[in-house]
Predict the structure of Extracellular xylan exo-alpha-(1->2)-glucuronosidase.
Amino acid sequence: MNKLNLILIALFIMGSTMVYAEDGSLLWLRAKTDAHAQVVANKQGRTIDVAVEELQTQWQGAPVQLMIVNTKEVTALGGEGFTISGNKSKGFTIAASAEAGLLYGAYYLLRLQETNAVPATLNVSEKPSYTIRILNHWDSFGAEDNTRAAFRGSFWKPEELPQIPASYKQYARANASIGINATVLNNVNASPAVLTARWLEKVKTIANELRPYNIKVYLSVDFATPVRLGELTTADPLNKNVQKWWKSKVDEIYKYVPDFGGFLMKANSEGTSGPRDYGRTHLDGANMMADALAPHKGVIMWRAFVYDPNETDRAKQAYLEFQPNDGKFRSNVIIQVKNGPVDFQPREPISSLFGAMQKTPVMVEFEIVQEYLGYANHLAYLGTTFEECLDTDTYAKGTGSTVAKTTDGTMFGHKITAISGVANIRGNVANWCGHQFAQANWYVFGRLAWNHNLSAEAIAEEWVRQTFTNDEAFVLPVTDMMMRSREAEVDFMMPLGLHHLFAFGHHYGPEPWVEVSFARPDWLPSYYHKADAVGLGYDRTITGSNAVGQYFSPLRESYGNLTTCDERFLLWFHHVPWTYTMKSGRTLWDELCYHYDRGVQEVRDFQKTWDRMEKYVDSERFAHVQSRLRIQVSDAIWWRDACVLYFQTFAKTPIPYNLERPTMDLETLKAIDLVDFNYREKADRNKEREKIIPKIIGGGY
Ligand code: GCW
């Protein structure tokens, strides 16, 4: 036997017993690509070609037919909907009225295959819940990096264009496979430069790459672009020259990208420019942009994330600003609303704007990136967060008026419907999202955007099967761990409705005590937790800020009443005495300690679960998750100790004696000064922190 044969035999033996090393770069698209499926299509086109290629190389079953058809049943599903019929032995037919539908149908079949779920016969019809399913990249895209560390750098690698980075194709496939059909390339803190010819050329190149995958490109824009580019002296939306400028700029953009989607606008928010700078309203600004985009069928997604350092409860401000103008916005304006009234906290009640603007399309903005959930260091599956919001009843038109129904067009009949997620996709890590399990948050956003009736649990399971293995001994415990993971984060960070206990300089660790003389009060934890000798929490009832008054009955009453308020939101809406008896029979203080401790114990349990999974996972991904869970446990302890010890200075009551004792003292915890988590050049300031919890520097990216 010659040397080559020996090597081949050795490789064969290894291959049949080994779980191959993987770095996560394939995402959930790990189907073998050695199939030679028979696939025929009755038409050609660049999107159909993608569908054909995906099936030909990955579909292991009987022949597949792709048909563009014009039947009533199929056209009723819209251009992105599809039907699949047929059976496992003879093959399947995917029918759609447009190319996009065939693409989504192809991925549907492949998903069934990869989750071991191809049925003997199939007869399904699908159409998306929302027309625009969009990622918001908070990506510098050539601008100065003007936002938080968690978002620095660019996935698009604009300096490499027009050479196309290899990651684009996988990005497009991944999005198409879960139904995402739109993407905002750049950060909402937008640079005016993005609208100059040099950058529009790059936008065009990206749009061309994404188009075959049915993904449209959008841009965030700076409201004062005409001024900041030195072309006008004002950006007043009622000024004729300003209106003309935007019209001709939009015309120019459409020359580069004929199917350009539109703009995303963060106006007069956290220092960005906006119509208010010229004494105008958000309504004036949005309608001016809408008029410029309308001839091209473009839309303007205008963010409701606006708040001022004034006397009004921050949680009330978006509603006060936007709701009174319901009915006055142009038809191509969509108001983009964060899921909760403040700012992507670990848990928030729904924003009171959902259901409250019935004549204007309103869309949810979720944060897929874990800005407030341990960055890419923590395992926190957000399917449960998204589901919790979408399924919450606003009661806008009686029982059953869920956030999903108030935004998907069914309740108020809006033609344009949308849902967005702030992307967690990075250009500088092989596994795309920093944490292997963070990929699941991208995945679940897309799947829920396609069908908000799916359950977070079913989607988690689907993802686990495709990303790791179909072995039930792995799928069940890992899915269970994911389903508990966000609640664990809430428990060790901000249980019972607490919010914004984050450090001033970063959103990673706890600093419930922080006071900064120059800071706006609404950027400091004490504004939110209001701890004092009597109790804890923000009184937003009728006797307090009356934020509850912005909700429909009976939500208003149930949130507003201490005894009926969902305890998950208790301290969001009430200032509660430390001695108050909770539903469990414990006092508020004891209950708080229990939640903090439960969070820690849960993460310890995740460690145990994961370690048991070693034999089902390749060593690289196993070790990656294992090391991240270690960081997560030590962070959980950091959070628990910091918050419990700090609040104890007000409650003046012992931690229940059957609970684990704190492992650090308050003074040491207060000495941690982690100015900006990813700033390695600030390492000196991190020295103290490194001594205590050494592994976390780097934020996981
Ligand atoms: O939560 C905050 C983030 C900012 C972000 C802002 C927003 C892009 O800390 O970095 O700015 O939300 O949503 O505009």
Observations:
- The chain has a mean pLDDT of 92.
- Residues 24-126 form a domain with the Chitobiase; domain 2 fold (CATH 3.30.379.10).
- The first strand starts at residue 39 and ends at 41.
